[in-house]
Design goal:
By secondary structure, this protein is an alpha/beta fold. The chain contains 13 helices and 13 strands. Helix 5 links the parallel strand 5 and strand 6. It is globular and about 60 Å long. Bound molecules: magnesium ion.
C-alpha cells in the first residue's frame, strides 16, 4: 500500500454515446471520445485521469489520439519508477520532453493525484488544502438548434429542477440570425433562468461590438469568449464596452495568460478547466491570480466523463474563488455514466462524492463496452 513508485501506465480510448448530438459553432459530436490514463503503483494502488477535449481537435489542437501517443510514447517511460507524490518533479520532467500538450499532461497529473490520495486513504481535495464548499451549481448547455427547440429543452430542465441557468452555443450561423435566435430564447426564459452565451472565439471585434450589446439588452447575463484566444486586446475592449460580464475561456490556459487578462482587465470572469491548463495545480495557480485580482471563477468543462468531471469538482470545491457556478454537466450528456455508483446531481448542483482519491469507481464492464478496438 505504501510503495508509491509507479509500476506501469495504461491508456484506453472510449467512445461514449451522447443522449443527443451536441453542436458547437462549427462542428458537433454524437459521441464523446475519452482517453483514460491509469497509473498503478508497486503498492497496488491505481489512479485514473481523463484526457478529454470537446469532441475533437478544433478547440486546442489536441485529440484523444494525439494524447494517447504523447502519453504512451513520451510520458509513460518517464513516469515508471517515479513516485506518485513527486508531482512537481514529474511535471518538470514532462515539460522537459513535451512542450504544450496540456490536455495530455492533465490526464497524467489527475491520475497522480488520484493514486497519491488513494495511497494515503484521503480524498483528492485534501491534497488541494481542504474544502470551501461541498457542491457547485451546474449550468446546462444548449446547442445551436432553433429557438423553439432550445426553449423546449430549457423548459424541461427548469421543470425537472436540475438546472436554473443555461449556456447557449453561438457562432454557427450569420450573426444577425444567430442574435435573433438567442434574443428570442432570452426574452422567453430570462425571467425564470440565467442565460449565458459562448461564441467559442468565432467573432471579430467589429461583429462583437455591434451585436453583443443587443444580447445584453435582451437579458443575457454573461458572454463567453466572443473573439479568438490570442486577441486579448479585443477582449478587453469588448469587456469595457459591455454592461454584462465577459468570461475568458480560449484566452485562458496558463497562469501567465491569467496575469495578462488581469493586467488588461480583459475579462470579469475566468473559466477554469483542469483539462486545458494541464491539471489541478496549474488551474489552482490561475484561480489564485484571479482571487488576488478580484475576478470570480467558473468551473468550465471540456465535456469530461465522470473521472474528469469529479477531478474538476474537487478543484472547484477546494478553491474559494469558484463563486460563479459551473458547467460540469458532461456525464449528464452521456448515455452511460461508467461508474459503479452514480454521481449525485441534485438541487441544481453536483455534490462531492465521499471516499479516497477522486471518490468514484469506474465500472469495468461499462468501460469495456465503450473501449475503442
Ligand atoms: Mg467555452
Amino acid at each position: 500500500m505504501n510503495d508509491l513508485t509507479i509500476e506501469h501506465v495504461r491508456t484506453a480510448i472510449l467512445d461514449v454515446p451522447l443522449i443527443r448530438p451536441h453542436r458547437f459553432a462549427r462542428t458537433g459530436m454524437e459521441a464523446q471520445p475519452i482517453l483514460l490514463v491509469t497509473l498503478t503503483t508497486r503498492g497496488g494502488v491505481t489512479g485514473t485521469g481523463e484526457g478529454v477535449v470537446p469532441g475533437g481537435p478544433w478547440w486546442g489542437g489536441e485529440s484523444v489520439e494525439t494524447m494517447q501517443v504523447i502519453v504512451e510514447r513520451y510520458l509513460a517511460p518517464l513516469l515508471v519508477g517515479r513516485r506518485v507524490d513527486d508531482i512537481a518533479g514529474v511535471q518538470q520532467a514532462m515539460d522537459d520532453v513535451v512542450a504544450n500538450n496540456l490536455y495530455a499532461k492533465a490526464a497524467v497529473e489527475v491520475a497522480l493525484h488520484d493514486a497519491w490520495a488513494r495511497s494515503l486513504g484521503v480524498p483528492v481535495h485534501t491534497l488541494l488544502g481542504g474544502l470551501a464548499r461541498t457542491s457547485v451549481p451546474v449550468t446546462w448547455a444548449l446547442g445551436t438548434e432553433s429557438a423553439a427547440e432550445v426553449i423546449d429543452e430549457a423548459r424541461d430542465k427548469l421543470e425537472s429542477g436540475l438546472h436554473s441557468s443555461f449556456k447557449l452555443k453561438m457562432g454557427a450561423q450569420d450573426p444577425a440570425d444567430d442574435v435573433a435566435r438567442v434574443v428570442e430564447v432570452a426574452e422567453k426564459l430570462a425571467c425564470d433562468a440565467s442565460i449565458r452565451v459562448d461564441l467559442n472565439a468565432r467573432w471579430d471585434l467589429v461583429t462583437s461590438l455591434r451585436w453583443l450589446p443587443r444580447l445584453a439588452e435582451a437579458g443575457v447575463d454573461l458572454v463567453e469568449q466572443p473573439v479568438p484566444g490570442a486577441e486579448v486586446e479585443w477582449l478587453a475592449e469588448i469587456n469595457a464596452a459591455l454592461p454584462i460580464p465577459v468570461m475568458a475561456d480560449e484566452s485562458l490556459r496558463t497562469p501567465s495568460d491569467a496575469l495578462r487578462l488581469v493586467r488588461m482587465r480583459a475579462a470579469d470572469v475566468f473559466s477554469l478547466k483542469t483539462t486545458k491548463s494541464g491539471g489541478l495545480r496549474a488551474t489552482r495557480a490561475i484561480a489564485e491570480i484571479a482571487a488576488a485580482a478580484g475576478v470570480p471563477c467558473h468551473g468550465g468543462t471540456s465535456i469530461e466523463g465522470p473521472i474528469g468531471t469529479v477531478a474538476s469538482l474537487h478543484l472547484a470545491c477546494a478553491t474559494p474563488g469558484v463563486t460563479f457556478g459551473s458547467e460540469l454537466f458532461g456525464p449528464l450528456l452521456m448515455r452511460e455514466e461508467l461508474l459503479t455508483e452514480p454521481l449525485r446531481y441534485a438541487d441544481g448542483a453536483l455534490h462531492l462524492p465521499e471516499g479516497p482519491g477522486l471518490g468514484v469507481e469506474l465500472d469495468p464492464a461499462a468501460v469495456a463496452r465503450f473501449t475503442r478496438r
